[in-house]
């Protein structure tokens, strides 16, 4: 070959390689918004078929994307579900990851490469806005009057705006990055989960006459905004939140973060307070649902989802943003306040056809609404029945962002990106559910095994069937989705097989 021809070929080859690279570089990584709701049941969303309360904005998200019917949070309570979501590791593998008190230390070790930390490696800017409930601060717990660290910023988030624990736990203040928002130096905050910090201050227990919302169980300590909470606090008057403003404040913070992201792809973990207790909707939603405060905050949640869509539209980002909508655990009706939730339920079935609810080993504990939408990329109005776990979001989003997951990182998370994007209906090979008392259940295909447990059968306070029995339980969810008939006695082989598999998963 003549030198000139050879040079020409090399030049052409280089040119092609360059073009491919340029195209890959140009193909922008999608933004990712995870709308993580609180205590939303499978049947609380009208597109899931049983809700008497309309949720048009959430339904539109489903209409534009995919509605999953067999997707699960990893646990039936908040803290462990969130721990697993952000670490890709089942929470029951780590002690101390049950429902966290409001003054807990940060539960995720700072050495962990979390889901947002992993995305940062791919050039994402990351934020958490909303409920945290994974603890803050070092061994001594959070320093509410100083720098609150370590926290989200030390484990992979570039920005954080938090309800530090839950709406029903003190301190009732927002934390923005490392500081309590609007805190005045001359009115420091004191928090205790053991004893009253200001013995002269009224409490829900001692002064019920000044409450505007009464506890039904627990929640009878410090009073903030006319509502008694879990835990005692004093000080921080200028920083106290108004529950009615939660949704507005969180939407505002989300809007600000999204519209600042121009150069980089972003990940927003948008963690709503709705529909957790105390259910105090903004005045414009109060008394609007006809189902009492629980219905009203559901309307507010639906509005919130509509706002996220609006913000994306406004910023021209709808086509380049993957939106995932789901819940941290299943539904609960009376979760500690006399808010008429039970009396005004009417024909609304918050758990759909499933048994149990928040706290429970039965399906309604972890089977939650799960909607994925990405305009122009995922087909619209689809339903995906594959067994899917939120623990897989880590590895799936890593695949989407083109990040390698190292050995030992996110050990329980499997790359299920084709399922997430509805290119496949391949079910997860197995899935583990964790209940309040850490009773584990195993799902394989349509079989569900609940391990024997000494835990109580019923949470009397919330009137939830917990699914605990001293003997093994086995259900065929294809024929009996409501888990009414325990087949363990007649299917000893299946029970032994699933017990052994669960043991194996637990050990590895
Ligand atoms: C329980 C609370 C409940 C709720 C839950 C956490 C009592 C009696 N009950 O201990 O109201 O706050 O913890 O909910 O205090 S979660 O969704 O954050 O897991
Ligand atoms: Ca929850």
UniProtKB/TrEMBL annotation:
Keywords: Hydrolase, Signal
Signal peptide: 1-22
Matching Gene3D superfamilies: 3.30.1120.10, Alkaline Phosphatase, subunit A (3.40.720.10)
InterPro entries listed in its UniProt record: Alkaline_phosphatase_core_sf, GAG_Ulvan_Degrading_Sulfatases, Sulfatase_CS, Sulfatase_N
PROSITE patterns recorded: SULFATASE_1 (PS00523), SULFATASE_2 (PS00149)
UniProt similarity note: Belongs to the sulfatase family.
Protein name per UniProt: Sulfatase-like hydrolase/transferase
Organismal lineage: Bacteria, Pseudomonadati, Bacteroidota, Chitinophagia, Chitinophagales
């Amino acid at each position: 070959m003549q030198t000139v021809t050879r040079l020409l070929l090399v030049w052409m080859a280089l040119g092609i390689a360059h073009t491919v690279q340029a195209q890959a570089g140009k193909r922008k990584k999608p933004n990712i918004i995870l709308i993580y709701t609180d205590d939303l049941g499978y049947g609380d969303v009208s597109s899931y078929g049983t809700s008497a309360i309309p949720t048009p904005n959430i339904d539109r998200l489903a209409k534009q994307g995919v509605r999953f019917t067999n997707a699960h949070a990893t646990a039936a309570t908040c803290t462990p579900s969130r721990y697993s979501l952000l670490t890709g590791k089942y929470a029951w593998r780590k002690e101390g990851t049950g429902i966290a008190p409001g003054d807990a230390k940060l539960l995720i070790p700072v050495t962990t490469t979390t889901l947002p930390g992993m995305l940062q490696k791919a050039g994402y800017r990351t934020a958490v806005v909303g409920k945290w409930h994974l603890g803050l601060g070092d061994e001594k717990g959070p320093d509410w009057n100083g720098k609150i660290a370590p926290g989200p910023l030390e484990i992979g988030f570039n920005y954080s705006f938090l309800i530090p624990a839950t709406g029903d736990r003190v301190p009732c203040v927002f934390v923005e990055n490392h500081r309590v928002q609007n805190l005045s130096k001359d009115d420091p905050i004191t928090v205790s989960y053991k004893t009253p910090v200001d013995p002269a201050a009224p409490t829900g227990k001692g002064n019920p006459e000044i409450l505007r919302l009464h506890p039904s169980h627990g929640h009878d300590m410090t009073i903030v905004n006319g509502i008694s909470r879990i835990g005692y606090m004093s000080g921080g008057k200028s920083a106290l939140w108004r529950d009615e403003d939660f949704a507005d404040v969180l939407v505002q913070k989300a809007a600000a973060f999204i519209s600042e992201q121009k150069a980089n792809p972003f990940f927003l973990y948008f963690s709503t307070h709705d529909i957790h207790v105390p259910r105090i909707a903004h005045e414009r939603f109060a008394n609007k649902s006809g189902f009492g405060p629980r219905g009203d905050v559901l309307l507010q949640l639906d509005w919130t989802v509509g706002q996220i869509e609006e913000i994306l539209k406004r910023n021209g980002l709808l086509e380049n943003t993957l939106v995932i909508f789901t819940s941290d655990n299943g539904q609960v009706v009376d979760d500690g306040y006399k808010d008429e939730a039970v009396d005004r339920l009417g024909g609304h079935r918050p758990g759909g056809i499933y048994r149990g609810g928040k706290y429970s080993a039965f399906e309604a504990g972890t089977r939650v609404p799960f909607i994925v939408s990405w305009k122009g990329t995922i087909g619209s109005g689809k339903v995906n029945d594959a067994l899917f776990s939120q623990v897989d979001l880590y590895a799936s989003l890593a695949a989407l962002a083109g990040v390698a997951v190292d050995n030992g990182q996110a050990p329980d998370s499997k790359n299920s990106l084709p399922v997430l994007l509805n290119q496949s209906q391949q079910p997860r090979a197995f899935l583990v559910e964790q209940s309040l008392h850490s009773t584990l259940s195993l799902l394989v295909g349509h079989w569900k095994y609940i391990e024997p447990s000494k835990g109580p059968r019923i949470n009397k306070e919330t009137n939830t069937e917990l699914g605990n029995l001293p003997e093994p339980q086995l259900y065929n969810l294809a024929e009996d989705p409501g888990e009414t008939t325990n087949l363990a006695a007649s299917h000893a082989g299946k029970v032994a097989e699933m017990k052994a598999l669960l043991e194996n998963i637990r050990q590895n």
